[in-house]
Design goal:
Blueprint (H helix, E strand, L loop, with lengths): L12 H12 L6 H18 L1 H13 L5 H49 L3 H6 L2 H8 L1 H34 L1 H8 L2 H38 L1 H6 L3 H53 L5 H42 L20 E9 L5 E10 L4 E5 L6 H7 L8 E6 L2 E2 L5 H6 L1 E5 L9 H6 L7 H10 L3 H5 L18 H15 L3 E5 L7 H15 L3 E5 L3 H5 L3 E6 L2 E6 L1 H6 L4 H12 L7 H4 L3
Parallel strand pairs: 3-8, 3-9, 6-7, 7-8
Antiparallel strand pairs: 1-2, 1-4, 4-5, 9-10
């Protein structure tokens, strides 16, 4: 499921056609405005043809025949048309860019919605900064292509054809001589187009690397300062920065060769006109007025070609950005099974039947794990780090798909339940609490968005945080900063517990919810957790003996298997059991309630 950061080549005509079809589909909601925009663009091009035509009339007729009124009328008519072109250009620039912006917004909205539906495994493999790059700078270039692409192509083709026809009326053979240079220009453009695409793709990838590095470094700035490792972070950032410089060098090298080569070819046009036109005039094949008009008019022939040449840069940017956008959009979403139904409100009888699980590109993590916990009971999972405890917690809400075995709740396989209804019945409190940048109230309300203010306050009271919140100057409207940076670990944890109280699920998963807290704070949190677990089926991953002893049953998970299973009393009674060893050790230390189980038994 990993994305290739250097993607950009579509690879085949069929793929290019599919890419174009998907791109064009975003124009559908804007069909009327797009049609008006293109019509205005064509009118702008046609108005541009008036000047050489009037110039020819002036030189051949009005000036030689001293028709002053005709000269003035012609000048006024051209001015009126130019005023009309002024308004048309504003229309094209404003509404054309708005079409591109709305298309960009729709793509960003589609991408965000798609990201919400991608499985955990996608985020395991992709850095936030790289994903953000695809949503921002990549899509900006797509919007520029959406506006300038059709406009440049349509106006350039219109001007090219109209100029070609008009030049033919002035002198057919001289026009053919100039037209013969066009294939050379096309060959040069196509050759450098391939090099530009590869170079621009590499530059995109390097930009994503920089953004990922920035996101990581800024998020971890407090750790960096604590360990005085700013130089190391600069070194890591410079790796991406140097990649960007090199990628830019390659892209600008390709761009420079492209523009220099194509500009040289257009310069050749002028040489051809000068020599061929001079020879034609010398031999009487064209008169002076026709030659002068031809020189003026030929710019209308060259201008659309140079426009298309300049457009190649934004085209490469846009195509590369859209390809990278589609790369994420084509990642399969989480999907319910074909026969999945709404689970309704579950009671909470959980069975883990011979579970096996393997993360992508890793060895098997779980090997035939079978456990059960009845409604209202608590199952404690203990064991060494990396043994598979958290993986089990992630499998119950179907954050990952099972490799083998099954999980049943109330006798129904979780694969037969819609993921939304399954997760609606499960509350999770983790050691690493994630809080959103906003107010205390909003973060508690996240547990159930339709809750009333009184329900939010009641959830806070039950989580033992209401009293503290009300001492704050802004109370529940207090802003907590990014990821709750303004709060202590215990305050964050109690907010997350309040959120679960508000959700009020029948099943509760506590993944080392108190392991990072000091003893005093843990006691406060534990009281809240004790109330939270009442009447709920609870699966708790814990190292603290105080938590383990309250469990209905304890399962020791080691190396992906159930090593021991039983109540605290049963495991204590086993001479070589984990609980027995812990109890004896803590009795010697004079502490039988708050010891760290994993450390005490050599985990």
């Amino acid at each position: 499921m990993a994305l290739n950061e250097s993607t950009g080549k579509t690879g085949s005509p069929k793929a290019d056609k599919g890419l174009l079809k998907r791109f064009v589909s975003y124009y559908k909601p804007h069909r009327k405005m797009f049609a008006l925009d293109m019509a205005a663009s064509i009118l702008i091009s046609l108005i541009g043809m008036v000047y050489p035509k009037v110039t020819n009339m002036m030189i051949k007729d009005f000036i030689p025949n001293k028709q002053l009124n005709a000269i003035i009328i012609a000048g006024v008519a051209v001015l009126v048309l130019y005023i009309a072109r002024l308004l048309l250009r504003y229309f094209v620039q404003y509404y054309g860019h708005m079409i591109g912006t709305r298309m960009q917004a729709q793509m960003r909205s589609d991408l965000f919605a798609h990201l919400q539906k991608l499985p955990f495994s996608f985020y395991d493999d992709h850095e936030t900064g790289k994903i953000m790059t695809r949503m921002t700078s990549d899509l900006f270039d797509v919007s520029e292509l959406a506006h300038h692409g059709p406009e440049n192509i349509l106006t350039s083709v219109t001007m090219f054809v109209a100029a070609f026809i008009y030049l033919c009326t002035l002198n057919f053979w001289l026009t053919m001589i100039i037209f013969a240079c066009v294939p050379i220009l096309i060959i040069v453009a196509m050759y450098y187009r391939k090099k530009m695409r590869a170079a621009f793709t590499e530059r995109r990838a390097s930009t994503a690397v920089i953004n990922a590095s920035l996101e990581s470094s800024i998020s971890g700035i407090r750790v960096t300062k604590a360990y005085t490792n700013s130089e190391k972070e600069k070194e890591k950032f410079n790796v991406g920065n140097n990649m960007f410089i090199e990628a830019c060098r390659k892209s600008y090298d390709a761009m420079g060769k492209f523009h220099a080569g194509s500009s040289f070819i257009t310069d050749i046009f002028n040489v051809v006109i000068l020599l061929a036109g001079g020879i034609f005039l010398y031999n009487g094949l064209i008169d002076a007025a026709g030659y002068a008009t031809f020189i003026v008019s030929v710019n209308l022939f060259i201008s659309p070609i140079t426009t298309l040449i300049g457009f190649m840069e934004s085209y490469q940017n846009g195509v590369t950005g859209f390809s990278r956008y589609l790369e994420i959009m084509d990642v399969p979403e989480e999907e319910d099974s074909e026969n999945a139904v709404d689970a309704g409100t579950l009671e909470g009888n959980i069975e883990l039947d011979n579970l096996t699980f393997t993360y992508e590109k890793s060895e098997e993590i779980l090997h035939g794990v079978s456990l059960s916990v009845k409604k209202g009971e608590t199952l404690a999972l203990v064991g060494p780090s990396g043994g598979g405890k958290t993986t089990i917690c992630h499998l119950i809400p179907r954050f990952y798909r099972l490799t083998g075995g099954d999980i049943r709740i109330d006798g129904k396989s979780i694969s037969d339940m819609t993921m939304e209804s399954l997760r609606r019945n499960i509350g999770i409190v983790q050691q690493d609490v994630f809080l959103f940048n906003g107010s205390i109230y909003d973060n508690i309300l996240y547990g159930r968005l339709d809750a009333t203010p009184e329900e939010v306050y009641e959830a806070a009271r039950r989580a033992n945080i209401d009293g503290w919140v009300r001492t704050l100057e802004n109370g529940y409207d207090t802003q907590i900063g990014e990821r709750g940076v303004k709060l202590s670990g215990g305050q964050k944890q109690r907010l997350s517990i309040a959120r679960v109280f508000l959700k009020n699920p029948p099943i509760l998963i506590l993944d080392e919810a108190t392991s990072a807290l000091d003893n005093t704070t843990e006691i406060l949190i534990q009281h809240a957790l004790d109330e939270l677990t009442v009447g709920r089926t609870t699966i708790v991953v814990a190292h603290r003996l105080s938590t383990v002893r309250r469990a209905t049953e304890i399962a020791v998970i080691s190396q992906g298997s159930v090593a021991e299973l039983g109540t605290h009393e049963e495991l204590t009674a086993m001479p070589d059991g984990i609980d027995s060893r812990l109890y004896r050790l803590q009795c010697r230390e004079g502490d039988s309630d708050t010891g760290d189980l994993s450390e005490s038994v050599g985990f």
